[in-house]
C-alpha cells in the first residue's frame, strides 16, 4: 500500500510528461503533421488529474483502513 | 457612484464577516470546543493560499497569452502533494518534533542552529515575497478600478494609492490581531486558519460561478466551448517542452519553499494524518480551480474588444454581459485570494524577522545576558507586530514605486524562482546527513546570485539595473557570462535558462562544499535528527548542564514563556525527575525540553543561544555521537534500553539522596527541637521566677514597680502560652485530630482580615501591599479561620524578613481550571537555595536571629494547608521571597 502511495507521484509525473512528445504549433506546421488541438490537450491533462485525485483518495482510504486494522490487532 | 458604494459596502461587510469568523474560531479553540477546527478539510482549504490573486485573475490572463502553460503552476504542487509520503510527511514530522517556527528556522536548526543561515534565508524570503505582496495589492486596486470604470468613473492614481493603503492597513491589522495572540509561533492560529479556509471557499465558488456562467450562459455548453477553444488563437498546442518541464519543477519547488506555504503546511498542521486527506483533496481543489480558466479566457478573447486586459477577464466578462451580481462575487473571490495570501505571508515573514533578526540583536544589546529578570515577551510580540506592519508596508512601497505596472505580472514566476533556491538546501537537509552549514551557505549564495543576475535584474528592463552591453556581450566583455546565455549556450528560454543554471550550480556547489567541509558535532546531531526523524523521536542530549542554575533558567523561561507556563513546565519536569518542589535539576534532558519549548517562541537558534548563555555552552558527548553513528537497530535499542535503565537509576539515586538528606536533617532537627523547646521554655521561666521572687521577698516596692514586675511576668506567661499553643496546634494538626470548621466567605475578606491582624501592632516597618481586588472576588468554602492563619503567617514573615529599603508585598490571585493560586511575593533578597529546603521544618529560622519567633509558623502553615487539601510552597525565581498557596477549586467557587 505504502509503495503504491510512493509511486503515485511518479506515475503522475510520467503521464504529465507525455505532452513533451507532442509537436508544438510551429513544429507541426514545419513537418506537416496535424497539431494537437487545445481542447484535446485539456481533456488529456484533466483526465490525468482526475485519475490522480481518485486514485489518491482511494489510497488514502485504504491506508486508513489498514491502519485501523493494525491498531485492532495491536489491542 | 451608487453601485460603487454597494461594492464598498459589500467589501466591508465581507471583511467584518472574516473578523467575526476568526474571532469565533479563536474563542471556540480557547474554550476547548474547537474539535471541528481540527478537521482535515480545514487544513486542506488553508493550503489553498497557494492560489493567490495571481491565480484568480492571473491564470486567465496567462492562458489568454500562452495557452495551457498556466496549468504547470498547478501541476507541480499537485505532484508534490500526491507524493506527500516522500517529503511533506517528513517536513511535518520534523516541524513538530523540533518545534520549528518557519522555513528559516528549519534550515538554521538543521545546520547546527546557525543564526547566520537563518538571517540569510529570512532576508531572501523577504526579498522574494515583497513583490508578491505588491502584486496582491495591485490586483485589489486594479479590480476596483475595473469596476469603477464600468460605471463610467475613473479613479485617479492617488485614489488607487489610497485604496491600496487602506487594504494594506486592514490586512496588517487583521494579521496583528489574530496572528500574534500567542507568543508561541508553533501554536496554531485558529482564527487565521479558519478565515483563510472561508476565503478559500469563497474564491473557489466565485471562480466556479464565473466559469459556469461562461460555459452555459455565454456559450452553449461544453460542445460550443470546445469549438470556441479550437477556433481561438490558443487553439493549438504551443507549449515548448523545456518550459513545460521546468515550470512544473519550479512550481513544485516553490510550493515547498514559499514561506507562506511552509506556514500553513507545516506549522499550522494539527495532525500528521491531515496530510492523508490533503493528498487527494488539495489536488482536487487545484483541478477545480483551473478547470474553467481556458473557457473564461477564450470567451473573453472572443467577446471583449481587442486590447482589453486579459488579466481581468474574470471580472470584465460578467460585467460586459451585464451580470453585476456575478461580477461582484468574482470581485470578492479575487479580494479573498489576495487578502489570504498577504495575511499568511506577513505572519510567516514576521515570525522569521522577529526571531532571527530582531531578537538576536535585542539580546546582544542587553548587557545582562539572558538571565536578567523582567518580561521579554512583550518585546518579542512587539517585534512580531512591527515586522508584520513592516512586511506589508514594504509590499505597499514596492507597489507605489513600481507604479503598479505590467511588470508585476511576470513577478510571480521570478518570485517562485527566488524561493525555489531553498530547495537543494531543504531537501539536502532532510535526506542527506552529510550536508553541512558551509555547504548550505555556499549553495544558497551561489543560487541567489545567479538568480538575481539572470532573472531579477533583467526583469527591471534593459538599461535600468543592468546595461544593454552586459546583456548582449556579457560583463567586461566576457561572452560566456551573458545573463541570458551562460557558457555561450544560446536559444534557451530566459526563464528556463535562469532556473536551470541557478538550481544546477546551487546544488552542485552545495554538494561540493558539503563534501569538502567537515560538520561540527552539533550539525551532525541535528543532521541525524532531521534525516532519521522517524527513528529518533527524541533529541539526544547535548547540554552538559551541571553548572547551570535552575533558578536562572527559571527567570529566563518566565520572561519568554510567561510566568504561568514556565512554572507549569518546571513543576512538571521536577515531578518527572522525582524532585520535590518547583525546581527541577538542570539535567541534560530537562535542558533539552526547555530549549525546545523556548524554540517554539523565539526560534531554535535564539533559544540555543540563550540557554548557552546560562549553561555555558553545549557540549556533545561521545555517547551522543556514538548514538548517531551506530545505525543498527539492535544497537539503538540496546542503548535506549540502557539509557532508560540508567535514567531510572539516576532517578532512584536522586530520590534516595534526597531522602537521606532529609532523614539526616530530621534527626538533627529532632535534637535541636528538644534543645530549642527547653531553651524557649527556660528563658521565660527564668524571668518569671526571678520577678516573682522579687515580688515575694521584698516589701518596699512601690506600686509602680509592682505593676511593672507583674506585667513582665504576665507577658512572659503569655509568651509561654503562645509557644505551648503553637506546639499543641502543630501536634494536633500533625496527628490529624483537627476538625475543620467549614464556612463560606470571600477571599478578599479573608485577606483583608489577615492583613489587618498581621500589620497591626507593628509600626516600625511599613510594608506596602499590592493587591488586585477584582481578582480576589472568589467565594471560598473552607475553614476560613485556618486559611486566614496561614495568610497572617505569610504576611507576618514578609514583614519580619523582607530586607528591602521600601518593603513591598505583592499578592497575586489566579484561578486555574481546578485550583486557586495565591502568591505572596515580596521584594527582599529572597531565601537561599539551602534554606529553601528547610524553612517548612519546625524551629527552622533563616539567617541571623534578628527577629523573634519560634520558627513554627511555616510548619503550621504547611500542616494547615495539607488539611485543607491544598499546598503551600516556596516559589523560586521571583526576585524576592515568594510563597505560593494552592487551594483546590471545589472549595473555591467564583462569585457570580
- Going across the biggest sheet of chain B, name each strand in turn: 4-6-7-9-8
The average pLDDT value of chain A, as a whole number, equals: 80
In total, the number of strands of chain B is 10
What structural category characterises the helix and strand content of chain B?
mainly alpha
| SSE order of chain A | HHH
What features would you describe in this structure?
The complex is a heterodimer of chains A (75) and B (896). In chain A, helix 1 packs antiparallel against helix 3 (38-74). Chain A starts with a helix and ends with a helix. Chain A has helices at residues 2-16, 25-31, 38-74. Chain A is elongated and about 60 Å long. Chain A is 79% helix and 0% strand. Chain A is mainly alpha-helical. The model of chain A has no long low-confidence stretch (mean pLDDT 80). Chain B contains 34 helices and ten strands. The radius of gyration of chain B is 36 Å and the shape is elongated. Residues 369-373, 537-542, 544-548 and 891-896 of chain B have low confidence and may be disordered. Chain B has five domains: 2-352 and 376-420, Sodium/glucose cotransporter; 421-534, no CATH class; 535-658, no CATH class; 659-735, Orthogonal Bundle (Helix Hairpins), CATH 1.10.287; 743-894, Histidine kinase-like ATPase, C-terminal domain (Heat Shock Protein 90), CATH 3.30.565.10. Chain B is mainly alpha-helical and 896 residues long. In chain B, helix 7 packs antiparallel against helix 16. In chain B, 47% of the residues are buried. The A-B interface holds A 2, 5-6, 8-10, 12-13, 16-17, 19-20, 22-26, 28, 35-39, 41-42, 45-46, 49-50, 52-54, 56-57, 59-60, 63-64 and B 67-68, 71, 75, 78-80, 82-86, 226, 229-230, 232, 234-241, 244-245, 248, 276-277, 279-281, 283-284, 287, 291, 294.
Amino acid at each position: 500500500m505504502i509503495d503504491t502511495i510512493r509511486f503515485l507521484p511518479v506515475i503522475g509525473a510520467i503521464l504529465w510528461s507525455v505532452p513533451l512528445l507532442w509537436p508544438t504549433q510551429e513544429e507541426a506546421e514545419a513537418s506537416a503533421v496535424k497539431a494537437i488541438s487545445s481542447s484535446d490537450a485539456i481533456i488529456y491533462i484533466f483526465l490525468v488529474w482526475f485519475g490522480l485525485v481518485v486514485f489518491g483518495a482511494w489510497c488514502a482510504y485504504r491506508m486508513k483502513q489498514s491502519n485501523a486494522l493494525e491498531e485492532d490487532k495491536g489491542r | 457612484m451608487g453601485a460603487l458604494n454597494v461594492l464598498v459596502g459589500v467589501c466591508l461587510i465581507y471583511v467584518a464577516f472574516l473578523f467575526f469568523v476568526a474571532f469565533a474560531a479563536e474563542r471556540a479553540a480557547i474554550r476547548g470546543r474547537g474539535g471541528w477546527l481540527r478537521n482535515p478539510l480545514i487544513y486542506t482549504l488553508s493550503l489553498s493560499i497557494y492560489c493567490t490573486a495571481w491565480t484568480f485573475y492571473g491564470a486567465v490572463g496567462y492562458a489568454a497569452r500562452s495557452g495551457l502553460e498556466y496549468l504547470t503552476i498547478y501541476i507541480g504542487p499537485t505532484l508534490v502533494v500526491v507524493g506527500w509520503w516522500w517529503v511533506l510527511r517528513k517536513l511535518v514530522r520534523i516541524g513538530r518534533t523540533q518545534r520549528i517556527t518557519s522555513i528559516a528556522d528549519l534550515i538554521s536548526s538543521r545546520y547546527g542552529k546557525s543564526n547566520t543561515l537563518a538571517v540569510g534565508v529570512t532576508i531572501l524570503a523577504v526579498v522574494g515575497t515583497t513583490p508578491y505582496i505588491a502584486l496582491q495589492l495591485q490586483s485589489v486596486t486594479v479590480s476596483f478600478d475595473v469596476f469603477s470604470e464600468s460605471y463610467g468613473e475613473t479613479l485617479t492614481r492617488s485614489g488607487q494609492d489610497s485604496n491600496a493603503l487602506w487594504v494594506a492597513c486592514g490586512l496588517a491589522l487583521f494579521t496583528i490581531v489574530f496572528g500574534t495572540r500567542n507568543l508561541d509561533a508553533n501554536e496554531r492560529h485558529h482564527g487565521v486558519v479558519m478565515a483563510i479556509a472561508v476565503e478559500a471557499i469563497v474564491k473557489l465558488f466565485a471562480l466556479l460561478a464565473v466559469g459556469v456562467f461562461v460555459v452555459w450562459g455565454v456559450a452553449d455548453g461544453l460542445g460550443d466551448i470546445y469549438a470556441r477553444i479550437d477556433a481561438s488563437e490558443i487553439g493549438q498546442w504551443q507549449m515548448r517542452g523545456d518550459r513545460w518541464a521546468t515550470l512544473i519543477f519550479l512550481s513544485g519547488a516553490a510550493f515547498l519553499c514559499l514561506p507562506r506555504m511552509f506556514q500553513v503546511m507545516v506549522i499550522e498542521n494539527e495532525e500528521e494524518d491531515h496530510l492523508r486527506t490533503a493528498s487527494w483533496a488539495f489536488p482536487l481543489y487545484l483541478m477545480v480551480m483551473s478547470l474553467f480558466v481556458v473557457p473564461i479566457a477564450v470567451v473573453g478573447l472572443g467577446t471583449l474588444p481587442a486590447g482589453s486586459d486579459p488579466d481581468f477577464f474574470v471580472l470584465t466578462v460578467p460585467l460586459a454581459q451585464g451580470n453585476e451580481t456575478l461580477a461582484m462575487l468574482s470581485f470578492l473571490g479575487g479580494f479573498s485570494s489576495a487578502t489570504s495570501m498577504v495575511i499568511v505571508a506577513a505572519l510567516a515573514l514576521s515570525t522569521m524577522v522577529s526571531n532571527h533578526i530582531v531578537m538576536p540583536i535585542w539580546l546582544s544589546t542587553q548587557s545582562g545576558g539572558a538571565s536578567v529578570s523582567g518580561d521579554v515577551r512583550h518585546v518579542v510580540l512587539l517585534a512580531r507586530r512591527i515586522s508584520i506592519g513592516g512586511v506589508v508596508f514594504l509590499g505597499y512601497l514596492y507597489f507605489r514605486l513600481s507604479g503598479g505596472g505590467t511588470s508585476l505580472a511576470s513577478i510571480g514566476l521570478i518570485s517562485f524562482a527566488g524561493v525555489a533556491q531553498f530547495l537543494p538546501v531543504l531537501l539536502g537537509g532532510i535526506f542527506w546527513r552529510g550536508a553541512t552549514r558551509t555547504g548550505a551557505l555556499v549553495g544558497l549564495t551561489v543560487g541567489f546570485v545567479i538568480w538575481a543576475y539572470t532573472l531579477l535584474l533583467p526583469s527591471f528592463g534593459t538599461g535600468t539595473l543592468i546595461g544593454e552591453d552586459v546583456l548582449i556581450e556579457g560583463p567586461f566583455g566576457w561572452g560566456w557570462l551573458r545573463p541570458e546565455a551562460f557558457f555561450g549556450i544560446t536559444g534557451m528560454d530566459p526563464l528556463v535558462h535562469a532556473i536551470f543554471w541557478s538550481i544546477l550550480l546551487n546544488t552542485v556547489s552545495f554538494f561540493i562544499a558539503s563534501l569538502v567541509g567537515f560538520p561540527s558535532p552539533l550539525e551532525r546531531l541535528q543532521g541525524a535528527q532531521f534525516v532519521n526523524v522517524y527513528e529518533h523521536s527524541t533529541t539526544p542530549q547535548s547540554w552538559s548542564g551541571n553548572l547551570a542554575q535552575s533558578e536562572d533558567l527559571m527567570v529566563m523561561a518566565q520572561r519568554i514563556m510567561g510566568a504561568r507556563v514556565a512554572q507549569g513546565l518546571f513543576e512538571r519536569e521536577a515531578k518527572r525527575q522525582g524532585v520535590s518542589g518547583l525546581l527541577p535539576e538542570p539535567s541534560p534532558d530537562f535542558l533539552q525540553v526547555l530549549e525546545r519549548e523556548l524554540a517554539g517562541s523565539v526560534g531554535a537558534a535564539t533559544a540555543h543561544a540563550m540557554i548557552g548563555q546560562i549553561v555555558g555552552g553545549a557540549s556533545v558527548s561521545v555517547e551522543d555521537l556514538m548514538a548517531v553513528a551506530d545505525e543498527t537497530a539492535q544497537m539503538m535499542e540496546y542503548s535506549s534500553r540502557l539509557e532508560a535503565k540508567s535514567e531510572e537509576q539516576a532517578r532512584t539515586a536522586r530520590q534516595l539522596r534526597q531522602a537521606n538528606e532529609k532523614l539526616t536533617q530530621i534527626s538533627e532537627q529532632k535534637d535541636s527541637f528538644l534543645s530549642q523547646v527547653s531553651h524557649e521554655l527556660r528563658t521565660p521561666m527564668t524571668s518569671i521566677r526571678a520577678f516573682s521572687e522579687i515580688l515575694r521577698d521584698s516589701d518596699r516596692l512601690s506600686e509602680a514597680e509592682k505593676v511593672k514586675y507583674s506585667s513582665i511576668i504576665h507577658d512572659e506567661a503569655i509568651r509561654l502560652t503562645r509557644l505551648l499553643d503553637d506546639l499543641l496546634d502543630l501536634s494536633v494538626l500533625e496527628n490529624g485530630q483537627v476538625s475543620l470548621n467549614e464556612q463560606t466567605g470571600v477571599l478578599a475578606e479573608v485577606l483583608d482580615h489577615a492583613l489587618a491582624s498581621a500589620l497591626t501592632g507593628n509600626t516600625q516597618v511599613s510594608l506596602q501591599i499590592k493587591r488586585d481586588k477584582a481578582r480576589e472576588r472568589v467565594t471560598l468554602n473552607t475553614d476560613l479561620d485556618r486559611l486566614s492563619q496561614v495568610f497572617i503567617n505569610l504576611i507576618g514573615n514578609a514583614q519580619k524578613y523582607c530586607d528591602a529599603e521600601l518593603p513591598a508585598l505583592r499578592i497575586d490571585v489566579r484561578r486555574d481550571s481546578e485550583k486557586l493560586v495565591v502568591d505572596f511575593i515580596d521584594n527582599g533578597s529572597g531565601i537561599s537555595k539551602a534554606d529553601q529546603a528547610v524553612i517548612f521544618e519546625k524551629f527552622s529560622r533563616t539567617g541571623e536571629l534578628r527577629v523573634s519567633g519560634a520558627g513554627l509558623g511555616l510548619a503550621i502553615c504547611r500542616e494547615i494547608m495539607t488539611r485543607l487539601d491544598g499546598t503551600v510552597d516556596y516559589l523560586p525565581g521571583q526576585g524576592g521571597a515568594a510563597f505560593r498557596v494552592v487551594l483546590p477549586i471545589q472549595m473555591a467557587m467564583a462569585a457570580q
